[in-house]
Write a structure and sequence with these properties.
Blueprint lengths: L1 E5 L6 H12 L2 E4 H11 L2 H10 L7 H11 L9 E4 L5 H13 L6 E6 L2 H9 L1 E3 L6 E3 L26 H15 L1 H8 L3 E5 L4 H13 L1
Parallel strand pairs: 1-3, 1-4, 2-3, 4-7
Antiparallel strand pairs: 5-6
Helix pairs in contact: 1-9, 2-3, 4-5, 6-7
The structure holds adenosine-5'-diphosphate (2 copies).
């Protein structure tokens, strides 16, 4: 099963991708995580991406398409993958179609998460993440066991630089202008599936499994 998860920032793509990976044994491919790791390692890719990410803008298509091209060739993607946060523009989606066709495979579904603007603002504002393992928490809905530190490795949690109000607004604007049109793109390909992303994570997970089992 090869899946794409679409949705505004903070819709719950990462949270649900991790569940799908566990349940179906898929590879988790998050362009946001890959880019943040590149920033941490101080690579040329990271340096270039940081200037866009810090202000809530999308990173140029050629950079992310290059990342995905290498990543989906890896062995762990052979048994299926979840693309979390890619594609985010129509040119990225077209590049993905070409890559998959030349590898003799295709997407099975593009799942779009529906959430209101208020939910988007709340989830991004209250998100905290672990800079060591990438685990995400929500100060109210999914708090860590001990205040301010990761349950798994005890690292102090941080707020992503793009989870501040001005950057959240910018990411929402980018989503509306460039990513939301992908719903029509995948509807046209007959693989769009829509899920209500507003209930609690367990319920969204249940809806998702139901939808993918059809
Ligand atoms: P995305 O990958 O779409 O940006 P995340 O999965 O990182 O979204 O979730 C954003 C924030 O919202 C995190 O703090 C996460 O703990 C929280 N969250 C995710 N899904 C839900 C949900 N269904 N209900 C409430 N909070 C959620
Ligand atoms: P969220 O879904 O919460 O916005 P992500 O971790 O998916 O978070 O993305 C964070 C940032 O990384 C984006 O705002 C953008 O700058 C960059 N990014 C991630 N994926 C892409 C992509 N496919 N195309 C362009 N930029 C991307």
């Amino acid at each position: 099963m090869n899946l794409v998860l679409l949705g505004p920032p903070g819709a719950g793509k990462g949270t649900q991708a991790k569940r799908l990976v566990e349940r179906f044994g898929l590879a988790h491919v998050s362009t946001g995580d890959i880019l943040r790791a590149a920033i941490q390692s101080g690579s040329a890719l990271g340096l270039e991406a940081k200037s866009y990410m810090d202000r809530g803008a999308l990173v140029p298509d050629d950079l992310v398409v290059g990342i995905i091209r290498d990543r989906i060739r890896a062995d762990d993607c052979r048994g299926g993958f979840v693309l979390d946060g890619f594609p985010r523009t129509v040119p990225q989606a077209e590049a993905l179609e070409r890559m998959l066709a030349s590898a003799g495979t295709r997407l099975d579904a593009a799942v779009a998460f529906d959430v209101s603007d208020q939910v988007v603002i709340d989830r991004n504002t209250q998100r905290r993440s672990c800079p060591t393992c990438g685990a995400t928490y929500h100060l109210v809905n999914a708090p860590p066991k001990r205040d301010g530190v990761c349950d798994r490795d005890g690292t102090p949690l941080v707020q992503r630089p793009d989870d501040r109000p001005e950057q959240i607004r910018q990411r929402m604007a980018e989503y509306r202008a460039k990513t939301a049109p992908l719903k029509e793109f995948y509807r046209g390909h007959g693989i769009l599936r829509e899920v209500d992303g507003s209930p609690a994570p367990d319920e969204v997970g249940r809806l998702l499994v139901e939808l993918l089992s059809r």
